[in-house]
TrEMBL record:
GO CC, any one term: cytosol
Gene Ontology biological process terms, A to Z: proteolysis
Gene3D superfamilies from the UniProt entry: Creatinase/methionine aminopeptidase superfamily, Creatinase/prolidase N-terminal domain
Keywords: Aminopeptidase, Hydrolase, Manganese, Metal-binding, Metalloprotease, Protease
Record-annotated Aminopeptidase P N-terminal domain positions: 7-141
Protein name, as recorded: Xaa-Pro aminopeptidase
Organism: Thalassotalea agarivorans
Superkingdom in the source lineage: Bacteria
InterPro entries named in the record: Aminopep_P_N, Creatin/AminoP/Spt16_N, Creatinase/aminopeptidase-like, Pept_M24, Peptidase_M24B_aminopep-P_CS, X-Pro_dipept-like
The UniProt record lists the keyword Methyltransferase: no
Family, as annotated: Belongs to the peptidase M24B family.
Length: 443
């Protein structure tokens, strides 16, 4: 399935052109790939590429460095990548090498990353500014400074070093926020695979007893559909475990009468899906579970119905928080003066996280939520943005409410694309109405 859902070379070229158009004249951008991370002794975690590097190259090997130079308005791209190494490749896998990189990745030149220090003084000479991704990675900053030093020591040979360091991330992040039609196709596929995995989890509850067994069923469904890995560590949380927001231990037995909260999504060709479903282990909601469930579901629908160009997370938040406050007051879970509860946003006692987030190459994808000079204006939605909408209600076992509500944890999360006229829910194949869930689970 995954083979057809890829990003074309033309689109990677367009991304680099679009990025370069935002660069100052006479500047160089240096974008680093990720490096492999040791899991234990001589084994590594499965490699995950730096998403900004991947966005601009589609290149999935570790330790590469992309250089985009803009000189007198002319843009050139140079990739530094791992050299071919027959011995290493026999043990660890094939490398693209340099000879094939120009054609397959569309860069103007490719050299071994082992030789980058000899190229950098010439690349940086006479440039005004250097862009790179500001982050906590001290290794990257030290490398940049080292290369700048290499230019400075050549001053008497006429070399001129850049004097400005600029963050590349805001430019790339703005690009990544608006998805192309090719990206949407990949994300739609990732969403559908993930939805199928949630269906499988619901039916698997008849057969299996432990949270990790349900997790295994989902990973199986991801992989056989072409998405070999989860986009993030799956949360498979039975009963009160759902009240732990990032519960990933997944090692407890499921209990009849409990709910099972599953937050899991596949990664397909670098792109994440992020779905949460909550359903009864035995296939039938109890009345209190159904009451809270339908409240959360209605809140989610209210938010999704409001998504269109020009709307904002702030607007959705107000709608959802108001709706849930009224609902919880009606049930006696929130008590006190309604207006005071609304003014003080007391719903956050039970709806303890945000309503949603951008989704893309990262599960919590990049892109500012606030805009304007102070970054405090609400960002209006635009066609091509993809976000999650995931309201939840969490009532811990020790909550000061009627006993029948205690231990209920419900989150419902879909992936939604903003379109020209409104929005499109990418994850509708994961059942979410009480009727659809109970029917699928055979109760
Ligand atoms: Mn999410």
């Amino acid at each position: 399935m995954s083979a057809t859902f890829t990003i074309s070379l033309d689109e990677f070229l367009l991304r680099r052109t679009t990025f370069a158009a935002q660069m100052q004249n006479n500047s160089v951008a240096i974008i680093f790939a990720n490096t492999e991370v040791t899991r234990s002794n001589d084994t590594e975690y499965h490699f995950c590429q730096d998403k900004n590097f991947f966005y601009l190259t589609g290149f999935n090997e570790p330790d590469g460095i992309l250089v985009i130079a803009k000189v007198k308005g002319e843009v050139s791209t140079t990739l530094f990548s791992l050299p071919k190494d027959p011995h290493h490749e026999v043990w660890h896998g094939r490398r693209l090498g340099q000879a094939l990189a120009t054609e397959s990745l569309g860069v103007d030149a490719c050299f071994s990353v082992d030789d980058i220090d000899t190229h950098m003084p010439d690349i940086l000479n006479g440039m005004h500014a250097v862009y790179y991704s500001f982050s906590g990675n001290q290794g990257v900053a030290a490398k940049i400074q080292g290369w700048l030093d290499d230019v400075r020591v050549r001053a008497r040979q006429g070399f001129v070093a850049p004097t400005a360091l600029l963050d590349a991330k805001p430019i790339i992040h703005e690009q990544r926020l608006i998805k192309s039609s090719q990206e949407i196709a990949v994300m739609q596929a990732a969403s559908e695979i993930s939805g199928k995995a949630h269906q499988r989890a619901m039916t698997a509850c008849k057969t299996f007893q432990f949270e990790y067994q349900i997790e295994a069923e989902m990973l199986h469904e991801f992989a056989i559909n072409g998405a070999r890995f989860a986009a993030y560590n799956s949360i498979v949380a039975g009963g009160d475990n759902g009240n732990i927001l990032h519960y990933t231990a997944n090692d407890m037995a499921l209990k009849q009468g409990d709910l099972l909260l599953i937050d899991a999504g596949a990664e397909l060709n670098g792109y994440a899906a992020d779905i949460t479903r909550t359903f009864p282990v035995n296939g039938t909601f109890t009345d209190p579970q159904k009451t809270i469930y339908n409240l959360v579901l209605a809140a989610q629908q209210l938010a999704i119905d409001a998504i269109k160009p020009g709307a904002s997370f702030a607007e959705l938040n107000t709608k959802v928080n108001t709706f849930l406050t009224h609902g919880l007051v009606d049930l006696g879970i929130l008590q006190g003066d309604l207006q005071t509860l609304l003014d003080e946003n007391m719903v956050k006692k039970y709806f303890i996280h945000g309503l949603g987030h951008w989704l893309g190459l990262d599960v919590h994808d990049v892109g500012d939520y606030g805009i304007g000079e102070d970054g405090k204006q609400h960002r209006p939605f635009e066609p091509g943005m993809v976000m999650t909408i995931e309201p939840g209600i969490y009532i811990p076992l020790d909550a000061d409410v009627d006993e029948k509500w205690r231990g209920i944890a419900i989150r419902i999360e879909d992936n939604v694309l903003v379109t020209e006229s409104g929005c499109q829910n990418l994850t509708i194949n994961a059942p979410k109405s009480v009727e659809d869930i109970e029917q699928l689970m055979g109760s």
